[in-house]
Amino acid sequence: MRAAVLHEIGQGKLEVLDDVEAVGFGPGKVRLRIRATGLCHSDVSAMSGVLPQPAPFVPGHEGAGEVVDVGDGVTGLAAGDRVLVCWLPACGACPSCKRGQTQLCLAGFMNAGTPNFRRPGGEVFGFAGTGTFTEEVVVGAGCAVPIPDDVPFEIAALIGCGVTTGLGAAINTAQVEAGSSVAVIGCGGVGISTIQGARVRGAAQIVAVDPVASRREAALRFGATEAVSPDEFADAKQRITAGEGFDYVFEVVGKSATARTAYENTRRGGTLCIVGAGAMDDNFQVNMFELFFDEKRILPSMYGGGDVLRSYERAIALWRAGRIDLESMITHRVRLDGINDALDQMRTGESLRTCIEL
Prior knowledge:
The protein is an alpha/beta fold. The chain is built from 12 helices and 19 strands. α5 (about 160-175) packs parallel to α6 and α5 packs across α11. The model has no long low-confidence stretch (mean pLDDT about 95).
């Protein structure tokens, strides 16, 4: 079967091969035929080494498709079922799951160290234990979440990661209050979803901050009340908050420099929400006096900061009701052979989300 493979960490391009085999099928597993997958910035971060991932590997974790076969012991799923891929399934038994913090379950991360694929030259891993830039993949049954018939595969794929992450940051983690002021730094697919989440929660001002003009324009269409470049952010803070700072600032880039900017633009007593996934050696610093004196809440948000199954259902309900726009987030569509063009479009900021159709 065909799949896009990164041979070594640090390479900028993927090779589309037709000699890849999905492996690992057996008890508790399901085989999926991927129909659509989104290109998420986390895929690029794994390729560059910012996020840890063994290589060679098949990127992709934001996917949807159909169940081809189910292994022994799998219940609630059958061949032909339409599903989205959950890259962080909850085991239901660990301390995090028992506390209701299923987004912190580590069971899914354990899958990342087991190869999902094989080629004549050896084993191949799947990013985040999945690997959706492929025609078929074998995953644990918990990674296959049934979706209603009225949800297109490309919409379901987005809900599988970026939409859930961004919406959840505003709704679950920060719990944005109605009438508040919000700034979102980084307006790719996750940032746009964060903007939509803040709008759903009733924020009065939502300022989008991004260096790319097309992304700033898109942010206005998705609910931002103003969109500025990073150089204009200080002026926006002065005009909108009289210099005090925003009630909520979301960092959706994953770098300590933008996290520091976010902190400095959060009002005293306000909330800084870290959504971007960054590198282990990139340290965010605050001094002990400002940490105490400013009383700013610093809230990391992992995969939307809540139970992902509930978050999926909520995203579908909001989409059906017309409260969030997911179709327009897909700015580009390609076949698997066009994956490297899609990567270039993401790196330059030309695309919000690219849907890879298989």
